[in-house]
Amino acid sequence: MGLIDELLGLRVCIDTAPFIYYIEKHQKYLSVIKPVFVEIDAGKIEAITSTITLLEVLVLPFKIGNETLGERYREILLYSEGLTTFEILHEVSEMASKLRAKYSIKTPDAIQIAVGVLYGAEKFLTNDPYLKKVSEIKVLSLGDYLA
């Protein structure tokens, strides 16, 4: 089953890496991730993420002084149809703490997964196969879908 088949008609929480691969046209992953964003734009996949994604994607544009790239990230994360970027509320922080305690995962990963779980995502799309051990949500790793 292909990645699109796994995601169509669902609410999907997307980790930071897939956004970077799509926006920066990553040679290895673009063929896998671009169709996901096409389906999000078409309303066939409902995407969510957290403001942790915004924090993580803006580091490079700030570091290299590329305001255009920063604006592109902001535009997609904050104003796209079919994508909701959730703030980190205390409920998210509490669930993220539980996830960190249970799985020994990093704080940003725990926050992203907590957002997915608390806001009703059926799948979590990442490129970190280590996160597949989380059982609260079905974790899909982009690397598993490379041709």
From TrEMBL:
Coiled coil: none
Pfam families, alphabetized: PIN (PF01850)
InterPro entries noted in UniProt: PIN-like_dom_sf, PIN_dom
Domain PIN positions: 12-135
Transmembrane segments: none
Domain of life: Bacteria
Name used for this protein in its record: PIN domain-containing protein
Organism (species): Kuenenia stuttgartiensis
